[in-house]
């Protein structure tokens, strides 16, 4: 499955950025993203709310009389008139860009006096799946005094790997090394105390997966 990640960059906010919270926002193609303003819900309708993509593409223009939704967004958005927030669903690569909202209150003023902006950057990711830990041993069975490695694998775009042993964060001893961005855990000289349950957690901004391996150390 193909994924796309949206990042909210606070560095591009105008002075009116108080209407929108800091990011990042992470979402995937086919899923949804919520643009939530920081405004307190109001019983008095806003005079107008405009959401745009890349300035020129109108997503929705809402007044106290009518809502006009852009044709590409029919059935894909939910607008929340009491706060000006917006939910966008069924994301595609065409949704990449800069989102801006302009809100005019019932008294004709803007809540913060400027137009805040969501700046969305994109990275191509794949959802993680099929995590596994593979054993490589210099003997048929892991035995004291031999060299053994555990390799943490998964399908998808791997950002981080973290190892645990017996439900606690793995602490490397003098006979252990991690290599290939934490993909391979090597026991240079296997010891009886290395026996236990090892867990590898794999993650990226849109998904996570994990696998465990019970290491039994045999006597030579």
TrEMBL record:
It comes from Haplochromis burtoni (Burton's mouthbrooder). InterPro entries: Ig-like_dom (IPR007110), Ig-like_dom_sf (IPR036179), Ig-like_fold (IPR013783), Ig_I-set (IPR013098), Ig_sub (IPR003599), Ig_sub2 (IPR003598), IgSF_CEA-related (IPR052598). Pfam families: I-set. SMART domains: IG (SM00409), IGc2 (SM00408). The lineage of its organism: Eukaryota, Metazoa, Chordata, Craniata, Vertebrata. Keywords: Disulfide bond, Glycoprotein, Immunoglobulin domain, Signal. Residues 116-218 form the Ig-like domain. PROSITE patterns: IG_LIKE. This is Ig-like domain-containing protein.
């Amino acid at each position: 499955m193909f994924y796309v990640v949206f990042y909210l960059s606070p560095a591009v906010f105008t002075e009116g950025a108080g209407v929108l919270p800091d990011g990042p926002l992470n979402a995937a193609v086919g899923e949804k993203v919520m643009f939530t303003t920081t405004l307190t819900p109001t019983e008095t309708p806003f005079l107008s709310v405009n959401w745009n993509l890349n300035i020129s593409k109108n997503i929705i223009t809402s007044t106290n009389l009518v809502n006009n939704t852009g044709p590409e967004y029919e059935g894909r958005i939910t607008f929340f008139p009491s706060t000006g927030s917006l939910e966008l669903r069924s994301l595609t690569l065409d949704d990449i860009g800069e989102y801006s909202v302009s809100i005019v209150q019932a008294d004709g003023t803007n809540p913060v006096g400027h137009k805040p902006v969501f700046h969305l950057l994109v990275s191509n990711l794949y959802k993680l799946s099929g995590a596994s830990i593979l054993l490589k041993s210099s003997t048929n069975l892991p035995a004291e005094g031999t060299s053994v490695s555990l390799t943490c694998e998964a399908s998808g775009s791997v950002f981080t790997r973290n190892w645990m042993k017996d439900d606690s964060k793995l602490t490397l001893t003098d006979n252990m090394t991690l290599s290939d961005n934490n993909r391979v855990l090597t026991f240079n000289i296997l010891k009886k105390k290395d026996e236990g349950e090892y867990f590898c957690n794999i993650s990226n901004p849109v998904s996570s997966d994990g696998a465990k391996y019970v290491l039994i150390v045999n006597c030579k």
